[in-house]
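Example record for the data management plan.
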Amino acid sequence: MIKGSCLCEGVAYEITRFAKPPTHCHCKMCQKISGSAFGTYGTPEKGGFKFTRGDDLVRSYAATEEFVRSFCSVCGSTLLFAPKNGDHVAVALGTLDDEAGIAPSKHIFIESKADWFDVVDDLPKVEGYGD
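Corresponding structural encoding:
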């Protein structure tokens, strides 16, 4: 079990296992929501994510017609990115409390990369999701 929480620890969650390696997303939305050059998200197995505390503190924002972003209403920590159809969630890895035992596999939406940030690792760099 992998545990995580928001900055104020009002919201906590558990993940049983990740379905695939996480990615570093360089889209403009991830830059804005993280206040950084990119966001790093991992997708738990279907049904492998649950809130263990503070789900009443979680607020969601319809970021696009297809996707919702969720955050803690107290401290503002970004928590989840999910399609509105609800078939999976992606968890902001910066909110993990435990070691995940996985590493990001690629940089996505590299065409939107912040001009003030240089990607210097050897991970693949792809346009869009690159699936």
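Summary line stored alongside the record: The domain at 2-110 is CATH 2.170.150.70 (Metal Binding Protein, Guanine Nucleotide Exchange Factor; Chain A).
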